[in-house]
Amino acid sequence: MKKTILIFLFTSLLFTSCESDFDINADWEEVTVVFGLLDQSQEKQFIRINKAFLGNESAYLMAQEADSLNFNPENLEVKIDKVSSLGNIIDSRILDTTILYKDEGIFADDNNIIYTFENDDFLKEDKEYFLTITHKNTGKVVTAKTKLIYDLKFNDFFVSDNYVLGFVSSFSGDFTTATVIWDHSRNASIYQLSMKVNYTEYSASDTVIKSIQKDFPLKNHIGDEEYEQQISGESFFEFLSYNIESSDEVNRRVNDVDFYLTAGGGDLQTYMNLNVPPTGVVQERPIYTEITNGYGLFSCRLNQSRENVPFTISTKIAIADRLDSLNFIYP
What we know:
This protein is mainly beta. Helices cover about 15% and strands about 40% of the residues. Strands 1, 2, 3, 6, 7, 11, 12, 13, 15 and 16 form a ten-stranded mixed beta sheet that branches. A four-stranded antiparallel beta sheet has the order 5-4-8-9, with no helix packed on it. Strands 10-14 form a two-stranded antiparallel ribbon. It is elongated and about 70 Å long. Mean pLDDT is about 85; it is low at about 1-25 and about 55-65.
């Protein structure tokens, strides 16, 4: 029976530079697979550490066994060092373990071990961070490093109290285009903007606040100091029409919009670019990693949000008038 090898990478997002292939007939070797994104906007940081596994059973069967994916935490020391620009270690964190519960799927949904630490002002954008994973039973050391992304900012007018989101002209009734602008952040190589439209649904028995989300295409950093995402009125109304079901049993009222902006580091950009679905004849993709003595990704990201952005009155009226099958009302 052929041996089967499978690498498990835990992904959410949003990852990096030696090319390597596995020889499925090679002698068994313990392979460490790492996935971690440091984000100083979050209080808790999480790093996934798994192992590639080799066996004589079906990969689908082996993936259901948590022991095929997880190292024994007692055999690992996972540490992150904060390093100054001069290369001196300023502070360190030894990571604890927690259990992540996931939906059912190919991989085991129990005992998913995640390594974590509290930020508590540990992550600073002007410092570099070194990850060290020591296998106590073998002495093998796996390492990686990353910088952090500097302050991520929307355009000042966009975050002001005076900003109102409009997709329909109050004078002509024609569709208009809204533009979301943000500044480039140091160490960021890729951006993604998401828009969440919030609305209230009224039925005879209940009132429920709901939302739908649109993720805009990734934008790679190409040297510009300012980036923008244009949202046309036509595309916005199509988004509502395609993502909200018609119903004669409810009325709806549109509320506001939340915008979420995520910036990712260079390694994350490379990882994502290499893992887009192949479209050509050649389906094989290289294994790309910045992990020393392992595989995977250790990089950075940063999140920023602008919530509860109000609509113009003309936009609310147009939603009620032009999407009548969705039963939006105004006022």
